[in-house]
Amino acid sequence: xxxxxxxxxxxxxxxxxxxxxxxxxxxxxxxxxxxxxxxxxxxxxxxxxxxxxxxxxxxxxxxxxxxxxxxxxxxxxxxxxxxxxxxxxxxxxxxxxxxxxxxxxxxxxxxxxxxxxxxxxxxxxxxxxxxxxxxxxxxxxxxxxxxxxxxxxxxxxxxxxxxxxxxxxxxxxxxxxxxxxxxxxxxxxxxxxxxxxxxxxxxxxxxxxxxxxxxxxxxxxxxxxxxxxxxxxxxxxxxxxxxxxxxxxxxxxxxxxxxxxxxxxxxxxxxxxxxxxxxxxxxxxxxxxxxxxxxxxxxxxxxxxxxxxxxxxxxx
Length: 316
Description:
Largest sheet: 8 strands, parallel, barrel
Helix content: 40-55%
Structural class: alpha/beta
């Protein structure tokens, strides 16, 4: 493919959210030491932003009960931002005390989903976000907001673009330094993704945008391509394709970091990521969980590896 004939950017920033979004869905507790080792390998692979954990109540997400220990144990590589997701002021205070480099504040665009996910109304979350920004600014830490269910809600159905854009505008006005759009239920399609992101970029041209895609219905990479075509250069992905959502039936993981990195490589888009080191992190987790992860690249390898292992007696 000739990248120069398309709208694709020359380079892409990939943020691995596996240690948060991926790990939180596992019922077997992942040892703190293993979490730390995986985060360290992600950084060694070239990831420059890693969503390392979330500071939520341990009764709600038991997997994240060691958030402070994880942040204390990781190797802080120069140039790497270690982020944490927070839902409220208490979580923000804990995250700042743990020395995170950046905060991500989640807010759902529909009332039902926000109540189910955060036990707050949308208006309450917006008010808390303003307080979080002021608290983080005092600590010299940047804050960004991610809008969950931007492309459709599992409880209320379709979500109007105007609803998402209006909420995004309010959060920017309150101090969000970046805005993320989440396909939490995995219901988006490429034309929808491109439309919303183009409008969001036109509305706030100076605000960096990112997208958080789930592959629940197999459209994750197609939606990622549509986002690239719309000018997005920042993408949430998860090692091995791990993840889901605790309140959405049938939710599966994010687009796999390996798969999206490979897609970018094949199209000539720079990511700065070493696929071999990245896959070593996923294999480590896969071995612990005792089941294959969802990443296609993790299972099949690159096209170069296909040639190396080709069997002449294979018929297809």
